[in-house]
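WARN retry 2 of 3 for item q-0093 after timeout on previous attempt; input resubmitted unchanged.
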Amino acid sequence: MITIIAAIATDNALGKDNQLIWHLPNDLKRFKKVTSGHHVIMGRKTFESLGRPLPNRVNIIITRNSDYTADGCVVVHSLQEAVNAAKDDSNPFILGGAQIYKQAIEMADVLDLTFVHHSFEADAFFPTINMEIWKEDTREDFKSDEKNKFDYSFVKFVRR
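OK item q-0093 returned
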């Protein structure tokens, strides 16, 4: 099973200038809990925006640069290579960015999404979710609070 995990705002916004454009501590805690112990697949720009490998996970980085290296990470050159590198994990997670999500949505089994109910200026976007292919499986809705500035929802979609 391959899971795409992402936080997206209104209009499918993911980020701007290779950074997240909101801060939701509850989403970050959930992300850590859900992905710990698994292989996480991401593009080079996403990895570099994180600044270091994510602990308790096998970090797989996709890049076209054949000379690229990153300490503590597996470096591959295509999404298929990344999936093959994660073959021993029953549920690897794809962390983005936008180009990787666009490719991965064709092969993923699950979309584990956080919808941030707010509009932001963005330059990276999640692909459109085709509801003929995906069906909503679970949803948890949350209101903003003192730590989480925006309303948000955790929504899981499964392939029909």
